[in-house]
Amino acid sequence: MMALTGLFLCSFLTIHLIGNLQLLKLDGGEAFNTYANFMSHNPLIQFISKGNFVIILAHAVISIFLTRQNQKARPVSYQVTSGSVNSKWNSRNMGILGTIILVFIAVHLYHFYAAVHYGITFIPTQTYLNEFGQPVVLLDLYFQVIEAFKVEWIVAFYVFSMIAMGYHLNHGFASAFQSLGLNHVKYNGLIRVVGFGFSILIPAAYAAIPLIIYFR
Length: 216
Description:
- The chain is 73% helix and 5% strand.
- By secondary structure, the protein is mainly alpha-helical.
């Protein structure tokens, strides 16, 4: 379950990134606002979105359960340990990395989800022309994101969280395949390479968005 929820969240990260990259288009936010409007009004997308919240919580709860089970299995620690020799730093600190990511998700949802669905902050509207030349009024979520990424601490927090995400993915991606019994001497090298590339490229792309907006 830990592996399956983790791999699902990897796919979500990829799809979510494609949408967020619309923020970098120099079109006054039309592409991003159109994308956000579609995502918030499509029933299937909304169903998947709600399911995604459940999977995130499940991933966190299962990790806590597994950690406690491991502690019960060995209540007395090894007399001598050499963590740096036996395992990587990120594999020994997945709980800390996961906690940072959970805090990031909470802040992210407050800024960009709760603000829309619960009216926490005022969001202006923009009028665009659709493919038929008819005016369409959309919430200007692009404006909200731009305003948020003018604030230094928010940008710094997002970049820091994406670094934590990278370390978390670097261990978790390959571990998921091992947990599912899909590791094999023929494919382990490829899995490690793909996992390493994924753990670098996806968080780096996410981190680049607030940085580009801030310095732009």
